[in-house]
Write a structure and sequence with these properties.
Layout lengths: L6 E5 L5 H10 L3 E6 L6 H5 L9 E6 L6 H16 L14 E4 L2
Parallel strand pairs: 1-2, 1-4, 2-3
Length: about 100
């Protein structure tokens, strides 16, 4: 039996179809969208068409889509705050089963 995915980090770009498919297949309670300034608006297109109710979503914006090191640095900087249960900033709580999906 597959383990329930509690949280999912998913990059946003291209079309929403593969993102929606992955989200619908996993049905995470919490989603962190990894976006650029240009793709952030896709969140508003994706959320209405998923076939489950999520508890919370957030996003991390990469400062430069062309440089993997900049994207990685931003992820490393922001992700711990999202996952930190002791932090009042975190709405995720303790997310043990996290899936990272890159489109």
């Amino acid at each position: 039996m597959a383990r329930k995915v509690k949280a999912m980090i998913i990059s946003v770009g291209g079309t929403e179809a593969p993102i929606v498919h992955s989200l619908n297949a996993s049905k995470p309670e919490y989603i962190c969208f990894f976006v650029s300034k240009e793709t952030k608006k896709m969140i508003d297109e994706i959320l209405p068409i998923v076939n489950f109710k999520l508890r919370h979503y957030d996003w991390i914006t990469t400062p430069n889509v062309e440089l993997l090191s900049d994207s990685y640095s931003q992820m490393v900087k922001r992700l711990p705050d999202l996952l930190d249960v002791s932090s009042k900033k975190s709405a995720w709580g303790w997310a043990r089963n996290i899936v990272f999906f890159m489109d």
